[in-house]
Amino acid sequence: MDHISNEFMKAYLLGQLPEDQAAVLEEKYFTNREFFLQVQSAETALISDYLDGSLSSAERHCFESRYLQVPLLQGKVEEVRRQRAAQPPAAHTSMWPHLRLAFGISIALVLGLGVWLYRSRTGNPPNAGRMQPQVQSVITVHLTPGLVKGPGEQQAQFEPAARGAAINLVLELPAQSFPVQCQVKISRVNADESRTAMWNSPEPILSSPESNFQALTLQIGGSLLEPGDYIAEAWTAGGKVQETYSYRIRKPEA
Q1: What is the residue-level pLDDT of the chain in tens, covering all 254 positions?
Q2: Inter-residue long-range contacts of 74-81, CB under 8 Å, 24+ positions, other chains counted
Q3: Structural domain count, the chain
Q4: Same structural domain for residues 241 and 143?
Q5: pTM to 2 decimals?
Q6: Tell me, what CATH number does 177's domain have?
Q7: Residue 155 and residue 184 share a domain
């Protein structure tokens, strides 16, 4: 596991590894930050290969069946696409781009000076009429450990966060009286009871006091959580599941 080949990493990202091999790799993924960063780099390279059209037919099929179907993975593809589009074009030997840049800066300075002089004469402060940034709203949801079993059990349910809002998931640890570090993995439960990984904490989360026990607090963007059933797992440093939580995100009411 100390020297994983690029092909092995690509097979994991494309979902081509047997479950036992994938499980071993995922355990290292959650407990080794250096390996986590290595996986992130390999995933970015895989998405770039797809956008460049350099994947084989079989690899492209596996990629599209995963990265174009899961909302979280779709977001990663779009993020890489945006980063590539924002990269500056290759430098040219001609001096014209440099002259054009200098000319543009000169015009901007002249216009800025003109606006400042106008506002100084009219007595309007520079920030007059400028809208103040809105404070991001945060929704806090407390989750008690335990899987829901049976029709009489109550499951935590809430609607997706509004656009621009974030969700604070507070995972209660009733058995913990002292701070503990845990990795957190959130998976979506599919119709056939299989799970699709949706979110992983990039590094261990330190719990904090909550009433007479400890709790893990993590903030997730509302856009990453679509309506459906979810399972959250808190892992200890040894790779053992500390607690499991289930919740449902309802469809917004019309």
Answers
A1: 445 677 888 899 999 989 888 888 788 877 888 888 888 999 999 999 999 999 999 999 999 999 999 999 999 999 999 999 998 765 444 454 554 555 455 545 545 555 455 555 555 444 444 444 444 456 677 878 886 555 555 668 867 766 556 677 787 888 887 787 878 787 788 988 888 887 677 777 778 888 777 887 877 765 566 788 878 888 776 566 668 878 788 877 76
A2: 75/223, 75/224, 76/43, 76/47, 77/47, 77/50, 77/51, 80/44, 80/47, 80/48, 80/51, 81/51
A3: 3
A4: yes
A5: 0.45
A6: 2.60.40
A7: yes
